[in-house]
Amino acid sequence: MNTGLTLAAEFETPSVEYRLLAPMLIVFGVAVAGVLLEAFMPRPFRHETQLGLAVAGLLAAFASVVMLAGDYSVAASGSVAVDGPALFLQGAILLMAIPGVLATAERKVDVGGVFAPAGSSTPGSPAERLLVAEKITQTEVFPLLMFAIGGMLLFPASNDLLTMFVALEVLSLPLYLLCGLARRRRLLSQEASLKYFLLGAYSSAFFLYGVALLYGYAGTVRLSGIAEAVSSEAGNETLLLTGTALLTVGLLFKVGAAPFHSWTPDVYQGAPTPITGFMAACTKVAAFGALLRVLYVGVGGLAWEWEPVIWGIAILTMGVGSVLALTQTDIKRMLAYSSIAHAGFILTGLVGTDAVGADGELLGVSSVLFYLVTYGFSTIGAFAVVTLVRDAAGEATHLSQWAGLARRSPVIAVVFTFFLAAFAGIPLTSGFTAKFAVFSAAWAGDARVLVIIGVIMSAVAAFFYFRVIVLMFFSAPAPDGPSVVVPSPLTTVAIAIGAAVTLLLGVFPTYVLELAGLASQFVR
Amino acid sequence: MSSTATVLAAATDTGTGEAVTFWVLGPLAVLAALGMLASKKAVHSALLLALTMLSLAVLYLAQDAPFLGVVQVVVYTGAVMMLFLFVLMLVGVDSADSLVETLRGQRVAAVLGAVGFGALLVFALGDAVVTNEGLDQANSEGNVEGLANLIFARYVFAFEVTSALLITAAIGAMVLAHRERHLPKITQRDLSVQRFRGGQYPAPLPSPGVYARHNAVDTPALLPDGTPADASVSRVLAARGDVRSIPEQASTTAIERAAPRREDDGS
Predict the structure, then answer these.
(1) Which of A164, A306, A381, B103 stands the most exposed, by the fewest C-beta atoms within 10 Å?
(2) A236 and B182 in contact by Cβ < 8 A?
């Protein structure tokens, strides 16, 4: 009793700055409220209420991100960094999550929605047919999405490796679940979910091993502490290098970079398409944010050591993504390989560590931030378009089924062409400005060979995008080909947001580029 | 303990008791871990994993980390492993692992990769010099109190966010496994009506075989003509291939002995 009293006196009450943590707290709060709604709300009202709550929560969280702009410090006893890159990426994730959630909530294109009526029913069983007939939908996906978004907000903002690991798991676990709940082609979806889960768990183990070794090196898991240890050259370098390597493996897995990319095509193909779009955009943003923070803040003093490695991985990633995308016959797999190639292009920008812009902004950081925004919105839009091209069996994802799509629906063909042009990096689309930004950052960082390889690879990548465009416009449609479904306003708005941002950032990129430049400094 | 102690110096600091514990439990843990990978039955794997975890728990305790040791026993060995065993028991393991390689050369490549990675870690980390803070310093307020201070003060946010993980896990389990009732409940009466209408075998299934030598659920009962009654053994056991055949277990003499008696009764 006595010792208990003295200990209570010694215990330092932690400082939790609720204002600085507001974006995350709002999203987690909405997620928990969503779980409660599942318990108490009658089934007919759940879908609309959950959707409204989720969108309102995302908007409120975005508002609190905007209010925090310029107010940089560390929060929660140093666990969370509230700084330019963190706020920029949090804002980006929240804005991307809105079209992501809207597309996920679509129920008109496939009656009942994109998710299976019950995850527990055996695919194709009489029980499932009954649920389909009764138009049961699974609304637990909304709290799951919000938990994933909460984890994504924390991931690029975590200032110590322990928090980063927890954030990694919080963002991954709901995604593993959501991948396995597709209404059509359930077995493929469940296989995707299992693959993602097993490989994700495996990569988490790498991450954790890296954290342990870095702790052994620096005696702390704080990124600032590790940075101090690196600059004072204290401790054992073997531990530092091995730890950094293992940690980076864990992060590169989430990013989908080349030797660790093998999950991407299978998972992107199997997951419900709006979830694929959400995952491709938001997970990539969060994971690159964390990678930037680890590499620039934690082991920034080690740039000489990690830059060549990132060089190699960037080249490999661009190569694997672009070349293998050429051989794909499924539109979702092709977009998955395209996403791998884009991870390579983004890594190119990361290499420009010592590139400093006119106003003292870190070009390596700002170009990556900008690229993530442009890529994310285009991807959500493109995957939302994929959901609309359907035949009796569900989405028609085989490339041959897309032949002559322009004759069936000129609007959808033109919109999809626009997204593909953005992926290929054609001027007047956001993809061009973004590629220009990362390549110029890498050029200023003296990674000229890398830039040349990157340009060649984007030419290779452009080829397979144009193959699809040619297929859509200049081939005769198959007689029993798919039709284009007119979606509800939810998907329409998601596609419109994606297309509008892609156009705006292509024509007037200055404002967001400047914002990314202003947001390029890390709090240490 | 000095603040800069090499692994070697730390090893020489080890007391006799701790050294004995290590050399007894270390090999045991490694062997159990290897056995877990090698054993064909999932239940054996699970039990061997439990053994590895218990050995580790004792090693933690020996190294002045009582909290970690106790958590290892209570949470991992106690809760998680027993949950594994329950799942194995309830679900039943009725399918063998397919050992067909879908990608040719994958297994060789995986083994080479694993050995290479292991060698890299062993040789790189094997001669790493560890600068440690010192256990005495970390445990200065007591092991549990020190941890509590870290978890509830310094890392309180990470701790709180972990709750999101737990909620997700709970919802995930519900989404994947829970079936809501959308049909009226089938009562016992409905079931019995069904059974008689269906024209199937209406009585309860026969119980498994009971012999003087043997009394087990995996041995089928014998029909009056001496053939085994397949319905008397659980389908799960049959799928697993765990059913004992009659000639092997109930010796033929027993059947022969049973047969004449029946004839006697008849006469």
Answers:
(1) B103
(2) no
